[in-house]
Amino acid sequence: MRKIFLAVPIFVILGILGMGISGCKSDNQVDSGIISDGTSTSAKTLQESEKLDKNSYAGLEDVFNDTKIISPNGKYMMMVFGANGCSYCEALKKDIKNNPDLKKYIQNNFTAYYVNMSYSKIHDFKVGSPSDPKEIQVSTAQLSRMYDIRPTPTIVFSDSDGKTILEFPGYMPEKQFMAMLEFVGTGEWKKAKTQKEINKLLQEYIFKKSNS
Length: 212
Prior knowledge:
By secondary structure, the chain is α/β, with parallel strands linked by helices. The chain is built from seven helices and eight strands; from the N terminus they run ααβββααβββαββαα. A hairpin with a 2-residue loop joins β5 and β6 (132-139). α1 (10-17) runs parallel beside α7, α4 (100-109) runs parallel beside α6 and α6 crosses α7. The model is unreliable at 1-20 and 29-40 (pLDDT under 50).
């Protein structure tokens, strides 16, 4: 699967905003007592893991889709990689719950998923264009390794074909988070032709929205 990373130098953005990176350390470990990466996992264990996974975004089922199938579905895709015990993950979910505008914007413009790396289940990962579809089955641990997830939360934005636009590690206050969502959702990022240009545009967009 071909991935395009338009990586943003986070220290530059956060320097402009006067913030520090806020995230919880992740060692990409999952609870092996819940489910393994093997094929001998019982149906009961699978069901239990899926229930625990959905509990991770309880109250936000109208925002986050079931991760059994992960696909853009014709929209921009947003994957939030989180973990149990991550205070910044909880802060992000609280921001979405308590801010109707934030919630509505995600619902209208993104196919969103909350991927809890504390558990592992099998995801049917469907990306690619109609003329060149890509489909693989991966465990949660494998999915997090595909995107090299370190701190949680880490938010990955992809286009309607599943190509990565932007990957942001850490928590961002809701006003700046909304600006980042708009930067992707309005297609503002398409004005950039190079990584350097998209970095600059994103910095300017967040700065402008943060001070409006």
